[in-house]
Amino acid sequence: MRAAIFDLDGTLADTSADLLAAANACFPQTCLTMAEDRALAFQGGRAMLRVALERQGRAWTEETVAELYPRLLEHYERHIARDTRLFPGVEAALDRLALAGWGLGVCTLKPEGLADLLLRKLGVRDRFATLTGQDSLPYKKPDPRHLLDTIAGAGGVPAHSVLIGDSQTDRDTAANADVACILVTFRPDGLDVGAMNAAGLLDHFDDLPALLDGLIARP
Predict the structure, then answer these.
(1) Local structure of 26: helix, strand or coil
(2) Where in the sequence is the domain holding 56, given as residue range(s)?
(3) Do 107 and 179 share a domain, yes or no?
């Protein structure tokens, strides 16, 4: 079976506003803004906390970050889909792929529980046969086994599979696994993915089924 495996943050959904809000909730005053820090949101919770601490001029260590991180996760879980939205065309594209016989999965660096919760809140969890998060396995992206195990869970084989992502990490993961990679061009922070030598670039989810068919013939 052919398998289409998706990253989550920045690929299926714009999660930046809710991630930044969770980081800000760890401090008395707002330290991070959408205008300045949208790109930072996709670097992870600890990265956001480090920048927020620096902006406050506070002396901090990685222990400080580790102490704040559970508070960030708690706030994020409670407000996980307040402002997060699927990118236009996601649901229709997933339905078209399923009808065409593609196995669908999610391979994300988000903790599995939060990824599962978010996909359920967004109404698309049942579209995916499998979900592997940051803590699902002993390894994670860019380790190829994270992707390869997700492909297997979706019923696919690597030679007939594609990873759809939004970052250099996704590109590296696919290359390490010898799997084709498509990168989205609409990541909210405007990251230039054109120089990453992906097998394809996706401007809108309406174009995804045809793009995948052009890369992976029906086995």
Answers:
(1) coil
(2) 16-78
(3) yes
- CB count, 10 Å around CB of 129? 17
- In which residue are the tokens 């997700």 written? 150
Mean pLDDT of the chain: 95
- Residue whose C-alpha is closest to residue 156's, from 109, 200, 119, 107: 107
**Single pTM value for the model:** 0.94
Domain count of the fold of the chain: 2
* Token couple for 114: 């939060």
pLDDT tens, residue by residue, 189-215: 667 888 898 999 999 999 999 999 999
- Centre a 10 Å sphere on the Cβ of residue 192 and count the other Cβ atoms it contains: 8
E strands, 37-119, in order: 85-86, 103-107
* Neighbour-count burial of 181, counting CB atoms closer than 10 A to its CB (0-12 exposed, 13-18 middle, 19+ buried): buried
Cα 75 versus chain centre, distance: 19
Under 8 Å between Cβ of 219 and 161: no
Q: Which positions are catalytic?
A: 7
Residues 140 and 36 in one domain: no
